[in-house]
Amino acid sequence: MLKGIKLRLYPNRTQQNQLEQMFGNDRFVWN
To answer: Domain Transposase putative helix-turn-helix spans what residues (predicted)?
Structure first.
């Protein structure tokens, strides 16, 4: 979670899309 927050502070568009996919997958797994 902390790692994701740190990355979220300075994402470019490509990284942001990748993070959204990662967070989406994580949320799907956790839920």
So the answer is: 1-31
Q: What is the rounded distance in angstroms from the CA atom of residue 24 to the CA atom of residue 19?
A: 8
Render each residue's pLDDT in the chain as its tens digit; 31 residues. Answer: 555 555 555 656 777 787 778 777 666 665 5
Question: In which element (H, E) is residue 18 found?
Answer: helix 13-30
Full residue range of the structural domain in which residue 6 is found = 1-31
In whole angstroms, how far apart are CA 25 and each of 9, 20, 30? Answer: 20, 8, 9
